[in-house]
Specification:
- By secondary structure, the protein is an alpha+beta fold.
- The protein folds into three domains: 4-150, no CATH class; 152-215, no CATH class; 221-268, no CATH class.
- 41% of the residues lie in helices and 18% in strands.
- It has ten helices and nine strands.
- The protein has helices at 4-15, 19-23, 36-44, 56-63, 119-125, 136-148, 153-164, 175-199, 211-216, 243-256; strands at residues 26-29, 48-52, 70-71, 78-82, 95-102, 108-115, 223-227, 233-239, 262-266.
- Strands 1-2-6-5-4-3 form a six-stranded mixed beta sheet, with helices on both faces.
- 21% of the residues are buried.
Length: 268
């Protein structure tokens, strides 16, 4: 929450958002910026808002005021319903849509979407025919779908990066040990990104690969390293049966040429 205002102000400066432009600018964000104070700050600066309520406890209480729940048209495991309690804490009118879903243990989870956008706006923004604005079930689905799209490529890339270096699978109880794990994760991340740049010099399609695909596919090539008597790498033999070995051998030869390391294909 402490970063929201400075981030929005910086973005507004770069994008030259005057009052008229701000009125047509939608701030679509997760619950981290969804406190009453932050939402009111955005409303006071003329932005349109489409976000999740910061407080899970408040979301649970507001969900209790929903009169009718309906299945989400795009996610059958989630139910949606309009909050009926007045939103007097906000300085401008907002729509509030509650969502609920069940965990595997049967426990209900709740969230509330806060939006200044009208139903017709959401139908248009989600690419649906304008006559669907008359169907409340589809309108609720549009509010939820538009929120779900908030992160898009950014969130997918972050998730893929975490999976690529298996960040979520390693943790330590001691603070100092966890610091070391974080540093090793950073080192692994940088090495993978650098490797992608090195290999893409002669293999342009690798530029488009995320970390997960690089680790899962490209880096799974088997091979052997031959050492000199002093323990330095003299030759690398890549498995000729591996598809990516044939793809990457030229780039590796160029990369290691200055180190006087020979890279060849062979049977492993």
């Amino acid at each position: 929450m402490t970063a929201l205002r400075s981030m929005i102000q910086a973005a507004a400066q770069v994008l030259e958002l005057d009052e008229e432009k701000r009125k047509r600018t939608i701030i679509r964000m997760d619950a981290g910026g969804g406190s009453v104070d932050e939402v009111n700050w955005l409303l006071g600066h003329d932005y349109q808002v489409h976000c999740k309520d910061y407080s899970s406890a408040r979301a649970r209480n507001l969900a209790a005021t929903v009169l009718t729940w309906a299945d989400d048209p795009r996610n059958p495991r989630r139910q949606l319903g309009w909050v009926t309690e007045a939103a007097d804490e906000y300085i401008l009118p907002v729509h509030r849509l509650a969502a609920r879903w069940q965990k595997k243990n049967g426990q209900w989870c709740y969230a509330v979407i806060i939006s200044t956008l009208e139903p017709s706006d959401l139908i248009e923004l989600t690419g649906q025919p304008s006559d669907r604005v008359k169907d409340q079930h589809l309108v609720m689905g549009a509010y939820a779908a538009f929120y779900d799209q908030r992160g898009g490529t950014i969130e997918i890339e972050i998730k893929e990066d975490k999976q690529g270096v298996a960040m979520a699978k390693r943790s330590k109880k001691r603070f100092e040990a966890q610091q070391m794990v974080s540093l090793l994760n950073s080192l692994a991340y940088n090495l993978i990104v650098w490797s992608r740049r090195w290999l893409s010099a002669d293999l342009p399609k690798i530029k488009e690969y995320g970390l997960l695909r690089l680790v899962r596919d490209v880096f799974q090539v088997s091979g052997l390293a031959e050492l000199t008597a002093e323990g330095k790498i003299r030759r690398i033999v890549l498995n000729c049966a591996a598809h990516w070995a044939k793809q990457c051998v030229k780039s590796l030869c160029k990369l290691l040429e200055g180190e006087h390391v020979v890279v060849i294909l062979g049977e492993i």
